[in-house]
Amino acid sequence: MKNFSELGIIEPILKSIEKVGYTTPTQVQEESIPLILQGRDIIAGAATGSGKTLAFASAIIEKAFPGKGIQAIVLTPTRELAIQVSEEIMRFAEFKQLTITAIYGGVSISPQMDALPNTDVVVGTPGRVLDHLSRGTMDLSKVKVFVLDEADRMLDMGFIEDVESILSACPKKRQTLLYSATISTYIYGLAEKYMDNPAKVAVDSYVDPSLLTQVYYQVAPNQKFSLLVHFLKKEVRGLVMVFCNTQRATDFVAKNLNKQGIEAIPIHGGLSQARRSHTLERFNSGKALVLVCTDVAARGLHIEGVTHVYNYDIPKEAKQYVHRIGRTARAGEEGIAISLLTEHDYDNFNRVLSNHDLNIERMDTPQVERVHMETMKREGFSGRGRGGFSQNRGPRRGYGGRGRGNGNGSGYSSGNGNSSGSGYRGSSGSGTSGNQVNYN
Ligand code: ADP
Ligand code: MG
To answer: Does 194 lie in the same domain as 343?
Structure first.
C-alpha cells in the first residue's frame, strides 16, 4: 500500500490531507490518482463511499489556479451532491486558494451569476449549468478538467442530453474523468464519444464484506411496519436509513414512525430544496435518528455514521440495492443492511440476488407486537397471487396473538381480490443462478 505522496499528489493537497487526517489512500484513490495526474482520461467504477471525490479533486486542484476563469467543472446528479462535492473539494483546496462554486436549481440564480465571474471550479447539476450557459453567464471555454460524477445515476435520471450539451461547451482539449458506481455499455458509449483513450479503473469491492452484514426477514404484509418499529425501538445505536420505493411510502412510513415516538424524517424529491437541506442538516448533526428516503434523494450523499440500512421496500433493480447498502459500512465502520420482505417483494429480491454475488442471510422473524398505523392505499397491490410461495417454514408464528389487537386497517392490503397477478413463482430451486433463493 502506498502513501499519498507516493501517488504524486502535489504539496498543497498533501497538507490538506494531513490536516483532514487521512492516513492511507483508498483503493480507488491508489489506482486512479497516478493515472489522473499523468493527465489521462479515466473511467472509474467504484461504489459510493470509496473515496472518489478526493481522486478527481486531486486533478482539479493541481490544474486550477486562482483567477484564471472556470478551469474545472464537476457535474453531479443531485443538488445535495453538488453541495457536498464542492465542500469536499474546498477542504483539499485550502492551500491553493481556489474559488469553488456550487451551481444547482431550486434556489435563486442571481447569487450564482454574481459568483461565476470569479469562480475557478464549478460543481453543478446539469439543469442549472445549462441554464447559465444559455444565459451566457457561465463561460466554459477555459475548462481543463471535466468530471462526470455518478455517471450511471446521471443516465438513469435522463440527464444524458444535458451532459452532452455541457461537454460540447467545453474545449475539446481537456481531461475527462468519469466516475460511476456501476459501468454499463451506455457509459462506454459515452466514453467512446467524449473521451480520449480512457484508462479504466474498476474497484469491485463496493463494500468491505467483513464489515457489512446483510440479512433479511420474511414477514406478513400487515406485520411489516410493526417489525420495523420493533427493530427501531430495540436496536438503534446510531443513524438509520430506511429505504422505500416511492415518495408516498416514504411519507407514510415516516409519519407512522413519528406516531410511534420514533423520530423519523422523510426525504424525497417531492420536498422543496430548503426542506431537504434542513432535513440533511438535522441528520448530519445526529439530532434525528431515522431518515426515511427514496433512492433518488439518497443517492451519492455521504452521511456519516449510518449503522443500519433498512429496505422497507426492495428496490426493483439490483443496482439500487447495492447503492443502498453502500450507505453503511463506510470508512472502516461496521454496518448492517436489513431487508424486510413480504410476498410483494419477492420478485424484486430475486432480481437483486440473481444479479449480484451477495451474501444475504435469512433471519428468523421475531414475534412482534402489532402497532397501530394509518392505512396507505396502494393501487395495484391488492391481491397479487401468492404463486408457488408457501410460508410454511416451521410452525406459523402467532402473529398478533398478544398484540393489542386494534382492528385497524394495516397498510398494504393483501390476499383479497383477483389473484391473476404476477405473484412470486417460486422457481422451485432449479435455479440457473446460484443466488436464487427459495423462500421455504
Ligand atoms: P464516493 O464519492 O466514492 O462515494 P467520497 O469521496 O464521498 O466517496 O468519500 C466517502 C467518505 O470517505 C468521505 O467522508 C471522505 O471524507 C472519506 N474518505 C475519502 N478518502 C479517504 C481516505 N483516504 N481515508 C479516510 N477517509 C476517506
Ligand atoms: Mg461521490
So the answer is: no
